[in-house]
Backbone:
């Protein structure tokens, strides 16, 4: 019986990162990559529900939604957009470094990506603080200067917090993943033959970035073309 | 060593298999073997089935009399809510995929395990945590919103533990997503040499389609319940009409998942039937390509019909017309399957063993359930019948008469493979008969009750509905006994059942080429698929 | 109540149409069910395994058969769809001469208001052979107004109006059930619909309405809430005068035109800034959310509706629900309603809001200020 088992896992001892149920490293890499893409599909559907709710309410209350532009930190949001785009660049460079087996650049780029992520969260925190000070948190003494738009604006701010909140949650998870990657990279886990976790965490990070690219115009740039 | 005929394989106890490879609770709770994880799931979903079933029995007991005299209104409302939540999210959605699917898919495609074994184990833990939240909601006092959680009742008016129940479902949803993800990658990337898409067992095709629905639909219910929870906790009004929120938006978001979810709750069962019927007709499935394609068609079309749950909400007439015609179109692939199964039996060699009896039951009852679905897709009929017992009868015919019978049929079919034991055939046939009789007596009268106008979720009802309700309650008690019978003899067989060989039913499929129970890594040697699927009968050289 | 009935009474025009369609569906269903059951049964017996090593003839499949048994069921379902769509279409939009009755659902009772001011709880009285349109409003959660004998239900959704209509054909008393789960006493939210011969109905109507017709009650509310200071006559031009508005098309400040129907009036009261009439400013009318109940909203709507016609015309009598008006159907002043009900009325005598605004805007003095 022992022989039968070795027949199956023969050759796996030479490749430490190859899991027992995969035939070869290529199958393992492709499977992991496909797995992450499928997961990202589910994330699209998750955020899609929120975007759906946003679409419905914006169609119902266009005036109220446009009026919220006076209360959004558009400048901070724009900075955050740039921050995330840069972090995606550094992430790509990290993956490239891993592919080429360059440990130092890999560590640097992961570190910078984390740094950008933290800046994003810090700025987001600032925004939330501003909302708190201006009484724009639904359910906590929400006030709105244009009384006429009070209720639909509250809905918009609900959506603002839910959408940016879930996005921020995904960012936090992303930073956690990056930290884990950093530690593993430091311990020489990754080689040009095996850098799958870097690749798939990179995919995740890019996805979180893309969600923001959609969130930013929908929440921060509505009605900017209107006078006043 | 057996001293009887030389054809017998070494006895199961002497050979290492996935059950005796390791002992101890740690080897089970930290396993990454898909077969052990399947067993973990079998135990948990059986537990939830009996909890949900207990609530149903209490409901049917109450409904034997027109007055609400057994339990209070609030208690009754909690009973039907918890029955629905447990049965839908904690029994039916995981049922066949997490048990039979987990166990069989690697075997059927010729792999050593699923693509992501640790994620598989994680999915079970997530399911258990979700279940703990749901049970806590019950223990703390229950939920009374109906499993559909319509707002504003659930967001503003209900005083029960909505958030705990919603959290449980939210968490269990991740389990469903991870299972689907695992299956999709496995089926794409880990098929054995020679196992082309066109040779995959139809069980695998139907689980592939189910997995597509799981990954695309479940996140939407997740965000919907998250929004509901946030509304309840923070009193923010997304669905609150008094501040301009839209309760109908909740329904759209809810049903966008929950309608495809019902296809999660039938496609795996169809896959089981597609395995059983060829085996016990000893004949290749009729129309393989059509049955495979129909699974994908159901998954895709299933996402386009959710609005048929909103026909009477004041939805636009034109939207209703679109959803009505699409709901009829989605019935066509299901009909194709029924016809193909029947045609498989034509000129076959039919054996009446228990799995096949369950398959007969499935074909008949699913036909009735599916046809009554077309009734409900017909607009003016739905205006009368929606929210009545007709709908309840319809979905129990497909979910219980269909899926649960397929689950039982599949459990019996693969029981020898999973456990290495045979169950007592006489008792098994008897159990199948009791289930069939009990089921029809319970639910057929409900079609009539529905057309008579008895609304659903009614604790007390008009006296003229009593006769049919008594019939239904009598049927429920028979059905309950019917479910206990297999539970008892299957457990009995674990210790006292005759040992099964590799292939007691003479079935085709890679899972039957390995030992019963299989070794931890499934096969002694890498299997190679050299023939078409369901190659019963003469050896086929030509591709069909 | 002991007699067993397979179907409830069919007490409306629509009910009979639904029943006929249902018979067709049952027939098709029985045929296909029997077909499958018989095939399975017969095949199971005819082809039962006779010996252990028996191997049947291999059959691959048949494209022709697959097409046949896909297309035929689909065609049958198309028949069901079109027949169903026709019945649905016919019963969706109320005819213009329908008798209006207003229903408010709240946990856990039905409150019915008649234009003449009669009120009922959990009871609805309607005349035979006359289209009746129910306007449904909810005070709290979603309910559903279900009359099995009419094969009819419509959800009652908070925050909006839904309507359903029927023409009752058989005198009698029929069940009314709430059909959308709404909490503890959902199964107790039931009542009766009584269909009466026209003469009986008149007698019944004469018995109630002590507090005045709905339009009169609405008029009182209109005064009490201060609406009349702006909306009946207003030299300052702060707000649209409501005479003649109901049923007309209104031009809004963003260029859209909307029909001034029940939903428009309701929204204007609860969320005035959602739609601003062209030529007027936002933020002037306060919201009355929370200050008026659903029933009061309906009374106000009936009142505003009554401003659409000259007093003493046939339609105004019908609208205000006095018994003389009962026998007249339609009338020259009735707004016509095609599918979706958005045709413009033909009433040159009264000035629509749009004409009113146009007149004001072209007047040299008192011109509204420029919009910012």
Residues:
């Amino acid at each position: 019986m022992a022989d039968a088992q070795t027949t199956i896992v023969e050759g796996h001892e030479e490749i430490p990162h190859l899991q027992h149920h995969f035939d070869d490293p290529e199958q393992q890499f492709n499977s992991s990559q496909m797995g992450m893409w499928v997961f990202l599909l589910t994330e699209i559907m998750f955020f899609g529900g929120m975007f759906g709710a946003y679409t419905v309410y914006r169609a119902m209350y266009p005036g109220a939604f446009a009026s919220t532009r006076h209360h959004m930190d558009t400048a901070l949001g724009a900075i955050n957009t740039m921050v995330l785009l840069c972090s995606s660049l550094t992430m790509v460079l990290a993956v490239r470094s891993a592919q080429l087996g360059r440990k130092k650049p890999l560590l640097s780029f992961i570190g910078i990506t984390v740094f950008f992520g933290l800046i994003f969260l810090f700025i987001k925190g600032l925004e939330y603080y501003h909302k708190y000070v201006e009484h724009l948190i639904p359910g906590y003494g929400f006030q709105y200067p244009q009384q006429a738009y009070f209720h639909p604006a509250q809905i918009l701010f609900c959506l603002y917090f839910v959408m940016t909140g879930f996005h921020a949650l995904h960012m936090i998870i992303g930073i956690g993943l990056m930290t884990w990657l950093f530690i593993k990279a430091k311990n020489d886990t990754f080689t040009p033959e095996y850098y799958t976790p870097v690749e798939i965490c990179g995919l995740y990070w890019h996805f979180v970035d893309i969600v923001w690219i959609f969130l930013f115009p929908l929440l921060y740039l509505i009605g900017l073309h209107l006078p006043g | 060593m057996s001293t009887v005929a030389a054809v017998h394989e070494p006895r199961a106890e002497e050979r290492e298999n996935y059950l005796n490879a390791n002992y101890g609770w740690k080897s089970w709770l930290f396993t990454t073997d898909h077969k052990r994880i399947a067993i973990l799931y079998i135990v948990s979903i059986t537990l939830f089935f009996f909890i949900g079933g207990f609530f149903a029995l209490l409901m049917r007991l109450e409904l034997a009399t027109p007055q609400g005299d057994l339990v209070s209104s609030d208690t009754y409302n909690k009973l039907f809510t918890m029955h629905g939540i447990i049965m839908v999210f904690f029994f039916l959605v995981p049922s066949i995929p997490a048990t039979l699917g987990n166990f069989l898919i690697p075997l059927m495609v010729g792999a050593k395990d699923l693509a992501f074994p640790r994620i598989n184990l994680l999915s079970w833990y997530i399911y258990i945590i979700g279940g703990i939240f749901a049970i806590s909601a019950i223990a703390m006092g229950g939920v009374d919103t109906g499993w559909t959680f319509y707002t504003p009742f659930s967001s503003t008016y209900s005083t029960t533990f909505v958030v705990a129940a919603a959290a449980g479902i939210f968490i269990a949803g991740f389990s469903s997503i991870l299972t689907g993800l695992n299956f999709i990658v496995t089926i794409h990337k880990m098929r054995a040499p020679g196992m082309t898409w066109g040779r995959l067992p139809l069980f695998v095709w139907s689980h592939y389609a189910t997995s597509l629905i799981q990954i695309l639909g479940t996140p939407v219910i997740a965000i919907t319940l998250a929004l509901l929870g946030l509304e309840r906790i923070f009193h923010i009004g997304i669905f609150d009409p008094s501040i301009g929120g839209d309760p109908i938006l909740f329904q759209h978001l809810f049903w966008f998942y929950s309608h495809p979810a019902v296809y999660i709750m039938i496609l795996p069962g169809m896959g089981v039937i597609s395995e059983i019927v060829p085996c016990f007709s000893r004949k290749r499935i009729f129309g393989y390509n059509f049955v495979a394609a129909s699974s994908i068609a159901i998954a895709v079309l299933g996402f386009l019909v959710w609005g048929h749950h909103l026909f009477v909400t004041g939805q636009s007439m034109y939207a209703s017309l679109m959803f009505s015609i699409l709901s009829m179109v989605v019935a066509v692939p299901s009909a194709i399957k029924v016809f193909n199964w029947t045609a498989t039996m034509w000129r076959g060699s039919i054996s009446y063993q228990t799995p096949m009896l369950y398959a007969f039951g499935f074909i008949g009852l699913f036909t009735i359930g599916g046809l009554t679905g077309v009734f409900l897709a017909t607009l003016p009929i739905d205006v009368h019948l929606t929210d009545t017992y007709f709908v309840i009868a319809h979905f129990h015919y497909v979910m219980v008469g269909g899926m649960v019978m397929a689950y039982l049929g599949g459990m019996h079919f693969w029981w020898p493979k999973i456990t290495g034991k045979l169950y007592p055939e006489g008792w098994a046939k008897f159990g199948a008969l009791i289930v069939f009789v009990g089921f029809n007596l319970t639910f057929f009268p409900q079609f009539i009750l529905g057309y008579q106008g008895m609304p659903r979720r009614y604790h007390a009802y008009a006296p003229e509905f009593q006769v049919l309700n008594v019939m239904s309650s009598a049927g429920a008690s028979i059905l309950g006994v019917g479910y206990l019978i297999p539970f008892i003899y299957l457990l009995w067989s674990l210790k006292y059942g005759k040992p099964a060989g590799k292939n007691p039913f003479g079935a085709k499929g890679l899972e039957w080429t390995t030992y019963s129970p299989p070794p931890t890594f499934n096969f002694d040697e890498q299997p190679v698929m050299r023939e078409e699927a369901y190659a019963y009968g003469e050896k086929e050289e030509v591709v069909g | 109540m002991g007699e067993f009935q397979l179907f409830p009474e069919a007490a409306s025009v629509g009910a009979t149409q639904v029943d006929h369609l249902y018979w067709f569906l049952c027939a098709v269903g029985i045929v296909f069910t029997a077909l499958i059951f018989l095939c399975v049964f017969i095949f199971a017996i005819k082809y039962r395994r006779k010996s252990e090593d028996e191997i049947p003839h291999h059959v691959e499949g048949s494209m022709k058969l697959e097409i046949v048994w896909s297309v035929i069921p689909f065609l049958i379902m198309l028949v069901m769809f079109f027949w169903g769509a026709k019945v649905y279409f016919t019963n969706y939009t109320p005819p213009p001469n329908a008798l209006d009755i207003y229903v408010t659902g709240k946990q856990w009772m039905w409150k019915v208001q008649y234009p003449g001011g009669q009120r009922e709880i959990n009871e609805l009285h309607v005349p035979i052979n006359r289209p009746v349109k129910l306007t449904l409003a909810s005070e709290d959660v979603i309910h559903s107004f279900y009359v099995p004998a009419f094969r009819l239900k419509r959800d009652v959704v908070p925050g909006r109006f839904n309507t359903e209509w029927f023409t009752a054909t058989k005198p009698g008393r029929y069940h009314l059930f709430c059909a959308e789960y709404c909490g503890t006493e959902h199964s107790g939210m039931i009542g009766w619909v009584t269909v009466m011969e026209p003469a009986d109905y008149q007698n019944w109507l004469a018995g109630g309405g002590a507090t005045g017709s709905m339009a009169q009650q609405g008029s009182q509310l209109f005064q009490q809430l201060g609406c009349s200071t702006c909306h009946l006559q207003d030299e300052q031009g702060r707000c649209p005068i409501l005479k003649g508005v109901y049923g007309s098309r209104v031009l809004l400040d963003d260029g859209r035109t909307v029909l001034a129907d029940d939903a428009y009036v309701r929204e204007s009261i609860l969320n005035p800034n959602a739609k601003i009439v062209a030529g007027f400013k936002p933020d002037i009318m306060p919201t009355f959310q929370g200050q008026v109940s659903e029933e009061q909203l309906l009374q106000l709507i009936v009142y505003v509706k009554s401003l659409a016609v000259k007093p003493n015309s046939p339609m105004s009598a019908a609208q205000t629900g006095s018994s003389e008006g009962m026998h007249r159907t339609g009338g020259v002043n009735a707004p016509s309603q095609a599918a979706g009900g958005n045709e413009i009325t033909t009433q040159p005598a009264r000035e629509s809001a749009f004409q009113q605004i146009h007149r004001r805007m072209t007047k040299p003095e008192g011109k509204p200020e420029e919009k910012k």
About this structure: DSSP finds seven helices and no strands in chain A. Confidence is low (pLDDT under 50) at residues 1-9 of chain A. The longest helix of chain A spans residues 150-186. The helical segments of chain A are 2-9, 25-60, 62-67, 74-100, 103-133, 150-186, 196-220.
